[in-house]
Amino acid sequence: MRLSLVTAAMLATLLGGPLTAADRASFAPVGDWAIERRPGPSDAPACRMTRTERDAQGEIRRLVIVSLDRGGLSLAVADRNWDFPAGERFAVPMLLNGKPAGTTLIWTGDGQILRTPLPETIVPDLLSARALALRFAEGDMAVAIPDLAAAVAALRLCATGAASQPTVAVEPPLPPKARMATYTVGLALQGVLRTCNVAATDAQREAVEARMAALRPEMAPFEAAMRAQVTKSRGFACPTADREAEFQEALRRFITLSPDEFANVIDRQAEAAPGPPVAKP
Known about the structure:
Immunoglobulin-like
């Protein structure tokens, strides 16, 4: 079965108005996500981002749309193999990195579409997840979400009414280096604690979340870039047995030291690390 030709238009109607050239404007692409803005009478335009999956013949097999309207995120998934009664509601668990994401979401069906508002409580875990799946009685269906955090950051920027290519870019001031270094390491620790089988008490996990929550407001404009750097350096990889002690020490320092103290430790370790061998001339 092909994805219905009207499904994309239906999704657009459900998540931010008719899909017409006059009613939408391209904002910016982020990876495979296309971000669009629907101008409106308010100061906060409705924005959405779409990722399209195609089969080997180039036919659309699935659409994923995240919309931002009145401050909240909504998720819609369209699949060519679905056929839901219009308006019927379904409890479909969402899995993040193979684990249930908090409360079971209630989705509304409409033919080949399922849509749901996203509770704010699961958004941080969703943005840091490497894998998303929907759990049906017949089995789990994986939904690809590459570059999701960076795309949502651009989506939020779209909703501020900012231009996608401003002629004069006013960059927010950089936070202190020590706090940025601490937050970057904290992103890696969060990822490991959420996805890996490592030893950590509930108190330690709560302390990491509390430290990150305290730093997040000033780091928000830079978080997508930080996450990309952590991913590039494989900072989210689960520690092997021979590096478990190193992880535990980093966890202890992150919790007990101030950002300045923690950054000083990182600097001292970098200075003490042996450099690459120098070839003789």
